[in-house]
Write a structure and sequence with these properties.
heterodimer, A: Heat Shock Protein 90, 6-stranded mixed beta sheet, 6 helices, about 25% strand, globular, B: Glutaredoxin, 4 helices
């Protein structure tokens, strides 16, 4: 994966497979403590304790087409290379929270990338689910984009409309740059 | 800089368009599991949506899906015609995506050199 936004897209497809209807993403820049965190919380089916223990093992996957799953292991490796960690909390029937904690200044930390493109792809495909993304720079500013608000503004025009897709992609990207800058 | 107000204009325009819109029944699906994402599926999807807009095609849906089962040929794009005929394009990139819109979607002629049939398995 070239950047965090691609990891985000990947992790959110796990949430979708787990039947999540609400997915909240938070990317927090903490310059004072040299930290960057990305948190993805969903209300999907969650994981059993046993599966949770082995979920970052590449030879553990829910898919049936083959026996490897690389999404979470790749993200975990990157977080740990920076000196941070990947924390996953999950409760069966309630949902999962994935927390990627990275050292901001580490040379191994991936750039954030374009979260707008990732979310636009998801929002326009899974129009009946809700996504929100919050960018926060601690002590500075924040911005929240929520499909609930967008849906009400669109008044019946589907989220899959290509104009909406391109608008959201660009809008989220601009909010990201505005709050987090080019990191 | 985009603002939420722009969304209202998009809404108003789409409401006018929708009444005149004829659903072609054509669909484009982009494989977007870990394998597809790592191989560059996301820019392919963006290119498809952008090219359809540039060419004024508004009756073809573009969606993402999971792993299509042939990771080494990702990014994979499927074009499904109204009659259910499916054409699978492999090792896609943004430029090939634009070609598929022009030749397959608009001119109705599949790009055989990009299809799975001509891929080295």
């Amino acid at each position: 994966m070239r950047d965090l936004s691609l990891h985000l897209l990947d992790i959110l497809t796990n949430s979708i497979s787990a039947g999540a209807t609400i997915m909240n993403v938070e990317i927090v820049l903490d310059k004072a403590n040299d930290r960057l965190t990305m948190t993805i919380a969903d209300n999907g089916s969650g994981m059993s304790e046993d599966f949770l223990k082995k979920v970052t093992d590449p030879f553990s996957t829910t898919r049936t087409t083959r026996k490897v799953g690389l999404g979470l292991p790749l993200l975990k490796e990157m977080c740990e290379l920076t000196g941070g960690s990947l924390l996953i909390q999950s409760t069966l029937g309630t949902g999962t929270i994935v927390n990627a904690d990275m050292v901001l200044s580490s040379i191994d930390r991936l750039p954030v990338g374009n979260t707008g493109e990732s979310l636009a792809a998801l929002i326009s495909t899974y129009t009946d689910r809700d996504f929100s993304i919050r960018f926060l720079s601690i002590g500075e500013d924040e911005s929240v984009i929520d499909t609930k608000e967008i849906r009400s503004k669109l008044d019946g025009v589907p989220l899959s409309d290509p104009e909406v897709y391109l608008f959201l992609s660009q809008y989220i990207w601009e909010q990201q740059i505005n709050i987090l800058g080019g990191i | 800089m985009k603002s939420m107000e722009e969304l209202l204009q998009i809404k108003n325009k789409a409401k006018i368009d929708m009444s005149a819109r004829n659903q072609s029944g054509k669909r484009i699906v982009v494989g977007m599991a870990t394998c597809g994402i790592a191989a560059g599926a996301r820019p392919v999807m963006t290119a498809l949506v952008e090219e359809l807009k540039i060419r004024g095609v508004n009756d073809v849906s573009v969606t993402m899906t999971g792993c299509l089962g042939l990771c080494k040929l990702e990014p994979i794009v499927e074009v499904i015609d109204a009659d259910g005929t499916k054409c699978t394009y492999v090792k896609m990139d943004a430029n090939k995506a634009k070609r598929v819109v022009a030749e397959h979607i608009i001119n109705g002629r599949a790009c055989e050199d990009l299809s799975i049939a001509s891929a080295q398995l």
